[in-house]
Amino acid sequence: MPWGAAPAATVEPVHELQVTVPADRPMPVVLQFWERNTLVVDLQGAAASGQIRLSRQEGRQWPVRIGFRMSATRIQQLEVRGDQRIVLSVAGRDGAPVTAQLPVGVVGAGTPSLTVSWGASGAF
């Protein structure tokens, strides 16, 4: 019926950023998708601690907004190194996924890559 509730929008995975890992670590499942004007990097399928490196694809610019979706029951802190270093505490309740958004200034137009590490509280 036209006046009924609209169906829930499905998440379309995208490949905006290159994801690499250090040679001694396994490659986690990292999905990327757009949520409005924010590129969300989904770490829910990753281990409780780990590290990835995000870099722009050839000829593209960084997204203006980048967020990281995690399970707050497994990941308590997120460290991002770009033009600046920032450590974000992840707080959530009821086991629902949490999205932490990077503040302005961590990623600039000339930033070659971001190193993203996550783990238990006090790890960084």
- Runs with pLDDT <50, length 5+? none
Q: Rg to the nearest angstrom?
A: 15 Å
Quote the beta fraction.
35-45%
Compute the number of helices.
0
Domains (count): 1
Tell me about the largest β-sheet: 5 strands, antiparallel
What is the topological layout?
Blueprint: E1 17-20, E2 31-35, E3 38-42, E4 50-56, E5 65-71, E6 77-81, E7 85-89, E8 97-101, E9 113-119
Parallel strand pairs: 3-5
Antiparallel strand pairs: 1-4, 2-3, 4-9, 5-8, 6-7, 6-9
Report on the architecture of this protein:
The protein has one domain. It has strands at 17-20, 31-35, 38-42, 50-56, 65-71, 77-81, 85-89, 97-101, 113-119. Strand 6 and strand 7 (85-89) form a beta hairpin. By secondary structure, the protein is mainly beta. The model has no long low-confidence stretch (mean pLDDT 88). Strands 1-4-9-6-7 form a five-stranded antiparallel beta sheet, with no helix packed on it. A four-stranded mixed beta sheet has the order 2-3-5-8, with no helix packed on it.
Summarize the structure.
This protein has strands spanning 17-20, 31-35, 38-42, 50-56, 65-71, 77-81, 85-89, 97-101, 113-119. It has 124 residues and is mainly β.
